[in-house]
Amino acid sequence: MGLINFGSVLNLFMVGFFWGVTNPFLKRGTAGVSNIHDDNRFLKMIKEILFLATNWKYMTPFLINQCGSILYFISLKDSDLTLAVPICNSLAFVWTAVVGWWLGEEIPNRASQVGMMMIAFGICCYLMA
Predict the structure, then answer these.
(1) Does the model's pTM come out above 0.90?
(2) Distance between CA atoms of 29 and 51, rounded to whole angstroms?
C-alpha cells in the first residue's frame, strides 16, 4: 500500500458524492421518456434524446454527475486504482440510498444499512492503516 494523498482521497470522496447524489435525480428526470412512441426505432431514439436533452430536471443532475466523472479522471493520476474504484463506487451507493430515501423512496432495508456501515468501516480502516 502506497502513501495516501489527502487531496486525492478528498477528490475520491467528492466523486462518490457527485455520482451518488445525482442518481435519484437522474431517475426522476427520466420520468415521461417511456411515454415516447414511434414505429421507427431511429426516430424514437432521436425523440428520447431530445426529450432528455431539453429536460432541465434530467440535464442538471446529468451535468453534475459528469463533473464527478471528470474529477474521477483527474484523480486517477494521483490515486491507486485499487483505492479509487472501491471508494468512489461504494460511496456512490451509500449516497444514492441516502438521497433516494430523503426524496421519498423506500427506506434501505437492513441488509443495505449493514452494507453501508461496512463500507464506511472498511474505508476508515483502509485510510487509517
Answers:
(1) no
(2) 10
